[in-house]
């Protein structure tokens, strides 16, 4: 036995343990009550950009607008009319208050963010004339407490309207001029780690976003532009129990945006005015249809779904 041996207390254990909850479980407590995994569950919160100075003076050809001049006050009124429909229904309407003054397309907020159960995937737009809009959307999301899971980076391109929820475990993501393979892979990674199966949809050369071709009406009914949606996607939807309604008019799909509606709840939608054949088909199938005039908004080659970024459903 050694003499003069000191008895030194052992180093204590950490005695601190992590909170073993998921991000989805924590989001309401630490961020805000946000999250989306459906295109049709009861609409609770949206993000929009009311047209500001950016709509007052621009080159229509450069930003892909119609050559027909935009009535500035009317486009703002029509935007307010849409927002009122949402708020009257009970949904919270948040706004992107700041934006570049050379970005009239910023009104189309759906393109700039894609919501998941855990928060937002921030887009990286394809058009040079839209690049940078996402910075101000990020500011708006942070201000109201929506977590941003990732910003599409590197050489990735992705716009929010290139994604469509089928159900909590199924999502369609399209590639084309507004989403390349790098952007697709970045989105797919985020969704797959949440337990979501991602179905790839190739956009036709004549179209840029899913919501111009296909849009769910309820959890078991979808409207499609049949000549433009791949068979594999329709086959998947049918196997999941969806009733497929085929848009009756190509003119309404392409010119008056008959597929570009917003579901307030399953079987209850807001449809752009001027789509009588589409409205008749929907109503014949038991859908409650409200219409709204967005003639000025359509001059930007987008419609209701385009201007509405979902933040909370269900």
Description:
The protein has a domain at 32-214 and 294-313: L-arginine/glycine Amidinotransferase, Chain A. Helix content is 26%, strand content 23%. It contains 9 helices and 15 strands. The strands form 5 sheets. The protein has a 3-stranded mixed sheet with strand order 2-1-15, with helices on both faces. The chain has a 3-stranded mixed sheet with strand order 3-4-5, sandwiched between helices. It is globular and about 100 Å long.
Which secondary structure elements does this structure contain, and how are they paired or packed?
Layout: H1 23-30, E1 43-48, H2 60-63, H3 72-89, E2 92-95, E3 113-116, E4 119-122, H4 133-144, E5 148-151, E6 163-167, E7 170-175, H5 181-192, E8 197-202, E9 214-218, E10 221-224, H6 231-239, E11 243-246, H7 250-255, E12 262-265, E13 268-272, H8 276-284, E14 288-292, H9 304-307, E15 309-313
Parallel strand pairs: 1-2, 4-5, 7-8, 10-11, 13-14
Antiparallel strand pairs: 1-15, 3-4, 6-7, 9-10, 12-13
Pfam families: DDAH_eukar
Protein name: Amidinotransferase
GO molecular function: arginine deiminase activity
If strands are numbered along the chain, what order do they take across the biggest sheet? 2-1-15
CATH class of the domain at 32-214 and 294-313: Alpha Beta
CATH structural architecture of the domain at 32-214 and 294-313: 5-stranded Propeller
Q: How much of the polypeptide forms β-strand, as a percent range?
A: 15-25%
């Amino acid at each position: 036995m050694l003499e003069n041996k000191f008895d030194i207390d052992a180093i204590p254990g950490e005695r601190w343990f992590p909170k073993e909850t998921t991000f989805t479980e924590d989001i309401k407590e630490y961020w805000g009550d946000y999250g989306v995994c459906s295109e049709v569950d009861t609409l609770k919160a949206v993000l929009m950009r009311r047209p500001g100075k950016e709509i007052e003076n621009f080159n229509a050809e450069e930003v892909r607008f119609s050559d027909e001049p935009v009535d500035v006050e009317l486009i703002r009124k029509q935007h307010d009319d849409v927002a009122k429909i949402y708020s009257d229904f009970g949904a919270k309407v948040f706004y992107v208050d700041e934006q570049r003054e050379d970005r009239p397309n910023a009104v189309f907020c759906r393109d700039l963010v894609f919501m998941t159960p855990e928060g937002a995937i921030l887009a990286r737009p394809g058009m040079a004339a839209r690049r940078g809009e996402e910075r101000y959307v990020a500011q708006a999301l942070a201000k109201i407490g929506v977590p941003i899971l990732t910003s599409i980076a590197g050489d990735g391109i992705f716009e929010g309207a290139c994604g469509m929820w089928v159900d909590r475990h199924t999502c369609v993501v399209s590639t084309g001029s507004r989403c390349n393979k790098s952007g697709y892979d970045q989105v797919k990674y985020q969704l797959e780690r949440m337990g979501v199966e991602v179905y790839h949809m190739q956009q036709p050369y004549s179209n840029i976003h899913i919501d111009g071709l296909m849009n769910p009406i309820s959890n078991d009914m979808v409207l499609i532009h049949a000549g433009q949606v791949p068979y594999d996607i329709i086959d998947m939807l049918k196997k999941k129990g969806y009733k497929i309604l085929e848009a009756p008019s190509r003119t309404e799909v392409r010119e008056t945006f008959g597929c570009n509606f917003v579901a307030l709840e399953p079987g209850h939608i807001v449809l752009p005015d001027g789509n009588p054949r589409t409205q008749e088909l929907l109503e014949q199938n038991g859908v409650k249809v409200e219409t709204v005039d967005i003639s000025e908004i359509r001059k930007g080659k987008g419609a209701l779904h385009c201007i509405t970024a979902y933040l909370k459903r269900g």
